[in-house]
Amino acid sequence: MLLDVKGLSAAYGLVPALHRVDFHANAGEVVGILGHNGMGKTTLMRSIMGYVKVTGGEIDFDGQSILGTAVNTRARMGIGLVPQGRQIFPNLTVEENLHVAIPGKKAEVARTTDEMLDLFPRLKRLLDRRGGALSGGEQQLLALARCLARHPRLMLLDEPTEGIQPSIIDEISDTLAGLTRQIDITIVLVEQNLDFITGLSDRVYAISNGVLDREIPKAELTDASAVSAFMGFTA
Ligand SMILES: Nc1ncnc2c1ncn2[C@@H]1O[C@H](COP(=O)(O)OP(=O)(O)O)[C@@H](O)[C@H]1O
Ligand SMILES: [Mg+2]
Q1: Any atom of ligand 1 within 6 Å of the Cβ of 37
Q2: Which pTM does this prediction carry?
């Protein structure tokens, strides 16, 4: 088990956002977490990365508790986050966006940039384009490259399909599926898009009002009433 989240709770002031969340990701898996707006997806991703202070529970990464460690420590241990909205620097070029994400000396930066362009060949002809001039899909590729440039073992993806044209969503899905074959990576992704999640994930959970404690069995992902129930709607 690479990531083990046990009884995790978080709150904004007195208002709870996560309530005793339990889930795990095995090494090499793609784990999807399905949930509507406001259910706690971003809070969960940011808690695992270390941006949100948790109020209870445990997060183990590679068999070790990471609670209380800084974001940078978690990044060095091999956790990377592709944030919601992608957070590309709009006034920097694609190349500059990549370079600021890569630690190390010039030669190392050049080598890692080449490595990322091999993984994301579509970025090659966009290197001089400003981040803000990219389409949503192109920005998502850049955000993925920027995260992977630090060679994480666990990549957290917060709503990768948000604001992306349906035709390009399939391309992002294919790109991610390809990545899992090319590099050694474990992915936890949170999404509202059921088709995207089911297409990519080895296992799927649902989060509803900060509660995430049950996996949705594969067979039930194609059953509308079962999915509704998991999403917090009762018949
Ligand atoms: N910085 C914040 N301060 C106060 N409340 C927040 C903050 N961020 C999120 N929340 C609240 O926490 C809940 C979960 O939000 P969030 O994790 O962003 O959900 P999602 O990503 O699923 O849309 C929501 O009720 C939201 O309003
Ligand atoms: Mg969110």
Answers
A1: yes
A2: 0.96
